Amino acid sequence: MTAPTQELGSGRTDGQRPAVRLDAVSKVYGRGASSLLALDKVSLDAAQGEFVCLLGASGCGKSTLLNLVAGLDRPTTGTIETGERKIAMMFQEPALFPWLTVSGNIELALRVQGLDRTARRARAAELLDVVHLGGFAKKRPHELSGGMRQRVSLARALAQEADLLLMDEPFGALDAMTRDLLHDELERIWRERNLAVLFVTHNVREAVRLGDRVVLLSSRPGQVIEDYPVRLPRPRRTESAEVAELAGRITERLKEEVSRHGR
Ligand SMILES: Nc1ncnc2c1ncn2[C@@H]1O[C@H](COP(=O)(O)OP(=O)(O)O)[C@@H](O)[C@H]1O
Ligand SMILES: [Mg+2]
What we know:
Structural class: alpha/beta
Protein name: ABC transporter ATP-binding protein
CATH architecture of the largest domain: 3-Layer(aba) Sandwich
Bound molecules: adenosine-5'-diphosphate, magnesium ion
Organism: Acrocarpospora macrocephala
Radius of gyration: 19 Å
CATH topology of the largest domain: Rossmann fold
Distance between the termini: 46 Å
Keywords: ATP-binding, Nucleotide-binding, Transport
Strand order of the largest sheet: 5-6-7-3-8-9
Domain ABC transporter: 20-244
Order of helices and strands: EEEHEEHHHEHEHEEH
CATH class of the largest domain: Alpha Beta
Number of helices: 7
Strand content: 15-25%
GO molecular function, one term: ATP hydrolysis activity
């Protein structure tokens, strides 16, 4: 069967190839006696338009995996393919430039696209509307709440017109209510833009709330131990019984894994 070719906003189409494919990716930090195996033969792929959550205990190699996909570091062995896709990354800390306005932070990301100043400002305003921060263009990061700063960071990631969005515990530092709101917004944007998302979290419910799949990683070295499809209808509610039920099962599996490693 032939999948229909998806028309992406960016105009890049890649047929049926997955948006990202990892094939037996291992990562060793350091050398000799002090070397550390962080990832062990991880194979994984995600289709364009698919939302994949990577779940695992702290230290299991989740950030390592995202950094490799982002091209910030190289695997020791194995391969990672992302085609010609543009990749944007979002971290737990928004890492905005404090001396720039909210708009300025986004305009900076737009510079590389060769837009002139007026066009950059207009595009930044559009993106701020997308993340519901329309009135905040002239504020500076310190004038915003944590949730608002993460929205700016999301708008900046979107400014890069990426097809593949990598998110490393982006909402980990937020309160539950703000996190719920951002889940809704992220879900809407993901759908509208048909993004492929790799979303790292250690929060089981968050993974079930958001993912088309929840990929469970073992404790160090990180290996894929389960790949749960999440067939619940969207939009989901984090506190719903359905989310809780699947999250409960995954948590049991995760506990087994952690106790196996004597933590
Ligand atoms: N640059 C590095 N050099 C050496 N060890 C590292 C480096 N980055 C991460 N590690 C180690 O690799 C393991 C996985 O780390 P990380 O990918 O940050 O895990 P996670 O994001 O799941 O918490 C940890 O034991 C960590 O200490
Ligand atoms: Mg991490």
